[in-house]
Amino acid sequence: MTTINLPTIMRQHTGGAKKITASGRTVGEVFSAVGHDYPKLGEQLTSPEGGLPVFVNVFLDDEDIRYLDGLDTPVDERSDITILPAVAGG
User: Fold this and answer.
1) Each residue's pLDDT tens digit in the chain (90 positions)?
2) CATH (domain of 68)
3) Within a domain: residue 90?
């Protein structure tokens, strides 16, 4: 299973869990499995069009998936996904 590290703001949808696990061959499949188990969290991981939301940064083993294959980026059981909300300010 792939491990997903969650930011504090998203833990409300997992009962406070800092990390969850899910199965899938790609980041998108893992997010789909997460959405099945945690529907409110799943809504935040993909846009209505099925892509990555602009306000969410996703890293697979410390690599930004936007520079890899996006949601089609392959994962394995040892993969670590970290989700970080984008922060803006001045």
Assistant:
1) 999 999 999 999 999 999 999 999 999 999 999 999 999 999 999 988 889 888 899 999 999 999 999 999 999 989 999 999 887 665
2) 3.10.20.30
3) no
pTM for this prediction: 0.92
Q: Which residues of 33-64 are buried (b: 16+ CB within 10 A; e: fewer)?
A: bbbeebeebbebbbeeeeebbeebbbbbeeee
Residues 6 or more apart in contact with residue 52 via CB below 8 angstroms: 46, 58, 65, 66, 70, 71
**How long, in residues, is the chain?**
90
Q: How many domains does the chain have?
A: 1
Chain-centre distance of CA 65, in angstroms?
10
Q: Print the domain residue range for 81.
A: 2-85
Structure tokens at 8: 């504090």
Distance in angstroms (rounded) separating the CA atoms of residues 31 and 80: 13
